[in-house]
Amino acid sequence: MAKMHIKSGDEVVVISGKDKGKKGKVIQVMPESGKAIVEGVAVATKHKKPRQQGQTGGIIKQEAAIDASNVMNICSKCGKATRIARKVLDNGEKVRYCKKCGEVYND
Description:
This protein is an all-beta fold. It has two domains: 1-50 and 59-74, SH3 type barrels, CATH 2.30.30.30; 82-107, no CATH class. Helices cover 0% and strands 45% of the residues.
């Protein structure tokens, strides 16, 4: 299981790939595969077959997983794409913070 620099709910920007420059919110993180699903990024077309009576099938669009190394957090204070670091405060609490401005994230 790999450590992830992003969490569900983080605001991120894509730094490489066909969706480079797009921003979105992290919907799901998969640490075992090192991937993440970001809202509005890597949208794939899926052909869905109706499985039960009364259910409709058709072509739907849904977000596909992208590699977590291709996204970077956006700091809520400075608004820039930044790396996230971890530190232990005096009271023993572990927190994540912005490497550019030092803003501490409440998780």
